[in-house]
Amino acid sequence: MAGRLASALCLLALLVTSISVAGERLPPNVAAVLERRDLPASSLSLYVERLSTGERVLEWNARTPRNPASVMKLVTTLAALDMLGTTYTWKTEVYLRGEVEEETLDGDLLLKGYGDPFLVAERFWQIVRAIRRAGIRHITGDLLLDDSWFDVSNYDPGAFDNEPLRAYNVAPNALMVNFKALRYLFEPDLAASRVSVSLYPEELENLQVVNRLSLDDRRCAGYQRGITITANQTVDEVIFSGAFPSACGTYSLYRSALGHNEFAYGMFRTMWRELGGRLDGGWKNVVFEGGDEPLMSFDSLPLSDVIAQINKHSNNVMARQLLLTLAAEKYGPPGTVENGRRAIDEWIDERELGIDSLVIDNGAGLSRDARISARDVGRLLRYAFESPFMPEYLASLSVAGRDGTLARRMAGVAFTGRAHMKTGSLDDVSAIAGYLQARSGERYVVVALQNHPGVHRGPGEEVHHALLRWVYGL
To answer: What is the pLDDT of residues 137-170, one digit of tens each?
Structure first.
């Protein structure tokens, strides 16, 4: 009894006085989470600023550079809005390399990409359909593909975590169709004692799917539901094996397939056939020097919509496309990662933002080398809030308990609907940053970056909740 009383008194003392180092002080409820989870206070960086006055309400290890995980997307999307403008669009051009007579193109059809980050299947189908409606049914030559606007040489999709088929590891590409990924749907057929596998949005003609799955009577649980995925070197054959629980309903996985050019060709050929078209040839990668007028040019969604996809859903591939776009627009094609970093560094200097801790790497945060301090994230968030594109930037962030990566995490809490945040999570990294409207009506910039073994498995989120609850009560 005496021991429990002593422990309770110690915890009370902690809550009253909180942790304090070098004049900085942690909110008591945040300190309590660290104590309960046995997390060192040195692993955490916090920054809170009242936007109406510029008062720095809280700084805790705020100048320490840390891995921010996907919070890094805040930097890339902010720089893009400022440098390109909210209405910036990408284009995809269609050229005829031959003559058309009686619905037959005697020659090749060329597609040239300029880095559209959101050329998903539904939008690509609009391009294919428009070509068909232009009076072309039969193409005697090849599909020519020009993705030279970006240079992404020597990219290894398995380098980050040895998961080369994961959709988040797809390389950027100037003619990227549907993120070079497919949704595989698995459904048990109890009557036939088998598992059916279907693909969305299309079953590509140049992709072979081998189904070796069997059913078993396990409960519906487990990593990937017992499905093992293997592929050959060119990823034009994907094999599914293992035992799928019969208790499961329809289950889905997103995985990449083929190379970028092969994927674009496969998608085009399948859609073209479905529209009654005929393509005699195969595909070739080319660099088109231009000079001719395109048959048609298709605009992407505006940048303001694209950054909402990047930030709300933490899309790594789209963030990488954005970094290369900044490079190509500022220094000319081909856009490279190195020039993308350079463009953002120069933007920071030109705007005199005083950011000195930034190591942006690929612009997406899917990196072990990326770094930034909590204070510098806070400075960027303040700059965005005072900018003319503040509404678009704010709207791109997940709303607590409402959508994006926070749809479930922060539902039913006091600040549900009052926080616009970007989350970040990697192994041993947990981060969150954005804006919170407190109970008083005041708005605050809030940043939390934490790097420590195991923090991504749940303790980091507890820290976020504790910090936001504290700020909400200010």
So the answer is: 999 999 999 999 999 988 999 999 989 999 999 9
Is there a single domain that holds both residue 336 and residue 253?
A: no
| Per-residue pLDDT tens over the stretch 214-262 | 998 888 887 788 899 999 989 999 999 999 998 888 999 999 999 999 9
Q: What is the C-alpha separation between 207 and 295, in angstroms, rounded?
A: 29
Evaluate whether residue 71 is within a structural domain: yes
405: containing domain: 18-86+305-472
Read off the pTM: 0.91
CATH assignment at residue 265 = 3.50.80.20
Total domains present in the chain: 2
Q: Are residues 411 and 468 in the same domain?
A: yes
> Do 214 and 125 fall into the same domain?
yes
Q: pLDDT tens-digit profile of 135-144?
A: 999 999 999 9
Instruction: State the Cα–Cα distance between residues 242 and 229, nearest whole angstrom.
Output: 9
Q: At what angle do helices 316-331 and 73-84 cross, to 10 degrees?
A: 40
DSSP-derived 3-state class of residue 149: coil
Domain assignment present for 9: no
**Strand pairing partners for 181?**
256
Helix/strand/coil for 28: helix
| Residue whose tokens read 């995980």 | 69
pLDDT digits (tens, 9 = 90+) for 274-309: 999 999 999 999 999 878 899 999 999 999 999 999
Amino acid, res. 255: R
